[in-house]
Model the fold of this input.
Amino acid sequence: MLLSVATRSKQIRRTGVRCVSQLTPRNRLSQMFIPTSKEKVAASNADAVASHSLMLKSGFIRQSSSGIYSILPIGLRTIEKIEKVIDEEMRAIGGQKLALPLVLSSEMWKKTGRWDGMGSELFKLQDRKESDLLLAPTHEEEITQIVANELSSYRQLPIRLYQIGRKYRDEMRPRSGLLRGREFMMKDLYTFDESLETASVAYDDVQGAYNKIFRRIGVPFAVAEADTGNIGGSRSHEYHILSAAGEDNLLTCYKCNYTANEEKATGVLPETHEAALKAQSTTTPAGDNFLQLLNPSSAHSLGVQFATIKASLVDKHGKRTILEDNALVAAVSSSSREVNFLKVYEVIRKHMESKVAPDQQFVRSEISLTPSVPDTISSSQSVHLIIDESAEEGIEANEDTLQNAMKKLSCKDIIVHPKGDYRVAHEGDFCPSCHTDNVSSKLITEKAIEIGHTFLLGTKYSDALDCSFTPREPANAPKLPAQMGCYGIGVSRLSAAVIESLHDDAGMIWPTSIAPYRACILVADNKNPESNDIAEKLYDELNAQVSINDPLCNEVVLDDRKGGFGFKIRDAEMIGYPFVVIVGNKTRTNGMVEIRERIKGQKSHQIELPITEAVAHLKQRVAEKLAV
Ligand SMILES: [Zn+2]
Done:
């Protein structure tokens, strides 16, 4: 009736390299530390997302302190599988792995301006000599310094270095378990190239690798154009898992797949909106309207938003030149649209940097816009006027209206920036990529969890930390700063995001690629010694038939715990093993086992087959599910 265990030694000789679990004791749930619980262990409401609750209930994690978690053995198996997929794809594009310290000196961070610039999210500490240190939130400074010390010639480039390690961010409100903790695990890759062109090739390579990583993991993901934010740089994308638990809003077009973070998204205004605006715009005389916009006493009631601009340049010795410390920006859009200050920031930044004389060397500009509500405008202030294209048409300025406004407001200067897109894009706007007069395509909002990010950094860090090389040509040319890219994946966050994307009322539904164990052999009635015996033999047989490279090697657990079938199958579905093999009455009486396959939102797919076919069936289904 049962498989012949005698075939086992033959099999081992044939495959040569044995699966590790043939050499170690059986993976028995009765002897493993997997503290599952029927009760919801999640404490506060803020942490009540499904992934956090399921990870606690299934014995994947335990909270150490606010936003800091211990990863228990079964949780670590999933994390390590994610890391293995990442390792393979990083190495495939020439990434070399290294390990960088968690405790960093503040010296480099002061040089790049991030010691103060990153604010209270930095975990700062001091050693016994009262030197400033920090717990690493990211490693651009560290890696750039390492490469700077070794780099001299273009011949050493390109360099691609990555690590997988812990990082720290002192979140004001840590929440949602591993989705937003104060300590988290990340992969970060840093690339160093000769030119912007070769750095762009690196960027494309990493995007290719990221697509492979998320496809191999087996979870639906979206790639969005992103804002480059305070990290600087010119190209940036975010990788997301769509989920209601996400804190990011994406605007996406289902026709052409245009997807962008709402901070970055551009939406074409609906025609009806444009027509309504045109109708309004005929009623107000241009000159008066323009003046009203800039005069704080009337501007607020017209929905104009003000911000104070501070701008300075820092050279490589840390010397600061102040460009502006008291200018104002007045930004206006139509009454139904909020101004997007990230877009306003970009145009102000470009304006400030363009004012610098070509021979004035600086490694970075520090520009801030702080919302303000001025009572008046003083004669020492310049005013930057930003008009979104959704705003009324009558407010274009000509030379006369400008001179008139300057006289009446008695300000230092008025700079009118070209009309453009300075508004927050909305769901229902037309797609900027594929909408035409003939094809109507609208943007839809999706909630999402960010799991990866790519940045083409340029020379922001290599300039500041003097990471430069002698170029290929011409001879005796001055050294050039390396063109850098940085590329992250939130490893611990990804494990939780996968659960958010793939779970149901019964529990987690792991993709076979990263499931903690791919199959569980469940003894339905362990009071019957014969059932235990059959299950153990099936377990041994399965391990005998897999080589060390087989996707089932060391991937099977035996649920031999005391307790009824109901308790065990609930645990198995909560943990989300892709396959459960049930050894029960029917196995004893007629040699049949039941195999259940975990599928989202449905009763498990169940088949019954002779126990002699169970191993072949499992091997085939696991291979099919892993095929990308
Ligand atoms: Zn589109």
